From TrEMBL:
Record-stated family: Belongs to the uracil-DNA glycosylase (UDG) superfamily. Type 4 (UDGa) family.
Keyword Ligase assigned: no
The protein's name in its UniProt record: Type-4 uracil-DNA glycosylase
Regions of compositional bias (Low complexity) in chain numbering: 7-21
Organism of provenance: Streptomyces spiralis
Length: 224
């Protein structure tokens, strides 16, 4: 990767991209092996491991979230923490079998802050630069799985797929048709399941969960 010049500071700035690490063939197994060695941006330095997508390689639905969380980083699998369990419940309630989906994230390494080594690791949202660097992995997953529908989970995934102007509140629960990484795609945006868990009280959490299920039912109807 060659450096480029930062217009703001006039100093060389490394051009982050995962593109050199992405294999041209071999399907999901080859992508997963290669992603484990990705050094396309600095996030790999502190994360435990790469957390690649998982699920049905022939899935009709691909769910795209933000990035791995603490439990995902430790276990090496996406959506295995509390948000993932809530998502599985919401999918089933909406009429989508979680076992027939493919789940992944826009960014494959856990980004966090940590005051001291033994303190809890606090999630930190990835930057646009980090999302862009990781984009070739998501493009490769889409090319292999070829889903009929993409469920966009939250603002970060939306920005990664649809651009920096994406606002989840403006388009959630609707079916969008866009060209993504050179492919015509249908997408249904909704909130990230972690936002349901962050609701302040039981009443708000119930309403937030109901909204997530309602959006996922739109996705289920779009599949026919």
């Amino acid at each position: 990767m060659s450096p480029r010049t930062s217009a703001a500071a006039g100093a060389p700035e490394e051009a982050y991209t995962a593109e050199p690490f992405v294999p041209e063939r071999g399907g999901l197994p080859a992508l997963r092996r290669a992603a484990a060695e990705c050094r396309g941006c600095p996030l790999h330095l502190n994360a435990t491991q790469t957390v690649f997508g998982a699920g049905d390689a022939d899935a009709r639905v691909m769910l795209v979230g933000e990035q791995p969380g603490d439990q995902e980083d430790r276990q090496g699998k996406p959506f295995v923490g509390p948000a993932g369990r809530l998502l599985d419940r919401a999918l089933a309630e909406a009429g989508i079998d979680p076992d027939e989906t493919y789940v992944t994230n826009a960014v494959k390494h856990f980004k966090f802050t940590q005051a001291e080594p033994r303190k809890r690791r606090i999630h930190k949202a990835p930057s646009l630069r980090e999302m862009t660097a990781c984009g070739p992995w998501l493009a490769a997953e889409l090319a292999v799985v070829e889903p009929e529908l993409i469920v966009v989970l939250g603002a970060t995934a939306g920005k990664a797929l649809l651009g920096s102007s994406f606002r989840v509140g403006e388009v959630r629960g609707t079916v969008l048709e866009r060209e993504i990484h050179g492919r015509p795609e249908r997408l249904v945006p909704t909130v990230h399941p972690s936002s349901v868990l962050r609701a302040q009280d039981d009443e708000d959490r119930k309403a937030a969960y109901g909204g997530l299920v309602a959006d996922l039912k739109v996705a289920a109807r779009a599949l026919g």
